[in-house]
């Protein structure tokens, strides 16, 4: 084949595919109960990159995560110097300031406006990949990435799983991971994981319209028998309704708030650990919830976390503020003081720093009996209920609107009763939550609610 002749599409998506891997792809696509796969994707890893990713996984498994309380990680100064030398946005600022806290912060809106100034000159444009995030805060993102970066996610999921006694074993001829969605529109595809012997990977949509027959969902999942199932509370709630007999070794919840009651139902049904992983498209898996540690334990050794007040100043130890990140493993998008829009306090556990009281996006206050309460109080009021997803909005007249997919069910009535204990009888309305994708959970029309 001459250099000018384009490679077949499958060779582009799977450069190292073996006959065993091809059989796995055929099995995933051609099973009689398979869904309608709407998209195509692949690992795109070259042979030498597979070895690099394996080495990376070994290093992450043994790495120490964290820095001294009141101090900074040893790698931070070198990372900042390299970033100022190679990233256009920072190079135009001149030399790094003498104090780390004098560096400018960045936000999702900055990246959404134009991501290109934040991509290093050293990034191999020919090997780059990108994807768009949906955006729950009004700022959809185009993320610069690379096949090696995408493959590195598994190292941190393995680290999180090992914390709960699970070490992945599935390899050639087995399905390693099924990614669940439950949306009217969902990116779905099949792939293989070269670092795990080309074990199968499938991203499926549990929405009934994506299948020849709704009963095929359970048949297909049982046929795949994945070692790990990843999803969000919405897709896991749909999974609970299916008569599956598969026995995954772990479930990973990778977005949205996972309430304790729903986690308990999943653990009881599938008799395996259910991990709540705090993950961002901009930086990958950040932390995993561990009740014994008191919060979400950090996973990345090359990620520094600050907690900032609204003016960008570090808060006192133990105080809540905005989670702000520097570093990361995406060499196509190094982060410097990136404000996530998520909030927590930071403590130091025996083996790693811990995000305590994590809440996604901007904290919202609610007015209850003439006093402001935190949106965390709303979460606490609902945490005993196995609700996959909810939205709470306070109108300008003070009435609270609770939106649930199952609003008119007995569970919806229980949820309203729970909130009436906070806001008073008759002050909570139930509405049906209609959403094709992730939505902002906490909102308010009251002045001062976003203080």
Description of the molecule:
This is Capsule biosynthesis protein CapK. InterPro entries: AMP-dep_synth/lig_dom, ANL_N_sf, CapK_Type1_Caps_Biosynth. The chain contains 12 helices and 21 strands. It has 451 residues and is α/β, with parallel strands linked by helices. The chain folds into 3 domains: 152 residues, no CATH class; 170 residues, 3-Layer(aba) Sandwich (Rossmann fold), CATH 3.40.50; 80 residues, GMP Synthetase, Chain A, domain 3, CATH 3.30.300. The strands form 4 sheets. Strands 1, 4, 5, 6, 7, 8, 9, 10, 11, 12, 13, 14 and 15 form a 13-stranded mixed sheet that branches. A 4-stranded mixed sheet has the order 20-19-18-21, with helices on one face. The longest helix has 17 residues. The protein is globular and about 65 Å long.
Gyration radius, to the nearest Å? 23 Å
Helix coverage percent: 25-40%
Structural class: alpha/beta
CATH topology name of the largest domain: Rossmann fold
Which geometry do the CA atoms define?
A: globular
Mean pLDDT: 92
Low-confidence residue ranges = none
Distance between the termini: 63 Å
Query: For the record, what is the CATH homologous superfamily label of the largest domain?
Result: ANL, N-terminal domain
User: Could you name the CATH class of the largest domain?
Assistant: Alpha Beta
How many separate domains make up the residues?
3
Count the DSSP helices: 12
Indicate the CATH architecture of the largest domain: 3-Layer(aba) Sandwich
Largest sheet: 13 strands, mixed
How much of the residues is beta strand, in percent?
A: 25-35%
Query: How many β-strands, per DSSP?
Result: 21
InterPro entries: AMP-dep_synth/lig_dom, ANL_N_sf, CapK_Type1_Caps_Biosynth
Pfam families: AMP-binding
Protein name: Capsule biosynthesis protein CapK
């Amino acid at each position: 084949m001459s250099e000018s002749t384009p490679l077949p599409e499958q060779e582009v998506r799977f450069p190292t595919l073996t006959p065993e891997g091809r059989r796995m792809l055929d099995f995933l696509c051609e099973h009689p109960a398979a869904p309608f796969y709407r998209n195509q994707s692949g690992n795109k890893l070259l042979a030498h990159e597979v070895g690099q990713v394996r080495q990376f996984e070994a290093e992450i498994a043994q790495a120490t995560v964290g820095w001294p309380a009141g101090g900074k990680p040893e790698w931070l100064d070198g990372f900042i110097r390299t970033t100022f030398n190679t990233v256009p946005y920072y190079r135009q600022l001149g030399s790094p300031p003498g104090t780390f806290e004098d560096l400018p912060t960045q936000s999702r809106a900055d990246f959404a406006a134009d991501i290109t100034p934040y991509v290093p000159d050293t990034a191999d444009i020919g090997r780059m990949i990108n994807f768009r995030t949906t955006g729950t805060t009004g700022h959809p993102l185009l993320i610069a990435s690379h096949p090696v970066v995408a493959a590195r996610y598994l190292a941190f999921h393995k680290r999180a799983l090992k914390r709960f006694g699970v070490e992945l074993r599935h390899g050639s001829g087995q399905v390693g991971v099924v990614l669940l969605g439950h949306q009217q529109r969902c990116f779905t595809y099949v792939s293989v994981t070269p670092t795990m012997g080309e074990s199968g990977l499938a991203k499926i949509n549990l929405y009934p319209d994506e299948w020849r027959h709704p009963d095929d969902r359970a048949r297909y999942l049982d046929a795949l028998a994945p070692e790990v199932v990843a999803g969000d509370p919405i897709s896991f709630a749909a999974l609970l309704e299916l008569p599956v007999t598969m026995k995954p070794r772990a479930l990973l919840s990778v977005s949205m708030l996972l309430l304790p009651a729903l986690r308990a139902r999943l653990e009881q049904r599938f008799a395996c650990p259910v991990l709540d992983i705090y993950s961002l498209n901009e930086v990958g898996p950040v932390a995993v919830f561990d009740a014994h540690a008191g919060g979400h334990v950090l996973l990345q050794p090359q990620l520094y976390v600050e907690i900032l007040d609204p003016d960008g100043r570090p808060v006192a130890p133990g105080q809540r503020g905005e989670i702000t990140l520097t570093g990361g493993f995406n060499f196509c998008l190094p982060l410097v003081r990136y404000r996530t829009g998520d909030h927590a306090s930071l403590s130091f556990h025996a083996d790693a720093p811990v995000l305590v009281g994590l809440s996604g996006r901007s904290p919202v206050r609610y007015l209850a009996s003439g006093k402001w309460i935190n949106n965390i109080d709303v979460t606490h009021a609902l945490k005993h209920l196995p609700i996959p997803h909810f939205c709470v909005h306070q109108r300008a007249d003070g009435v609270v609107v609770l939106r649930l997919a199952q609003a008119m069910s007995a569970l919806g009535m229980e949820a309203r009763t729970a909130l009436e204990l906070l806001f008073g009888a008759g002050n909570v309305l139930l509405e049906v939550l209609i959403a094709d994708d992730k939505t902002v959970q906490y909102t308010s029309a009251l002045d001062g609610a976003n203080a």
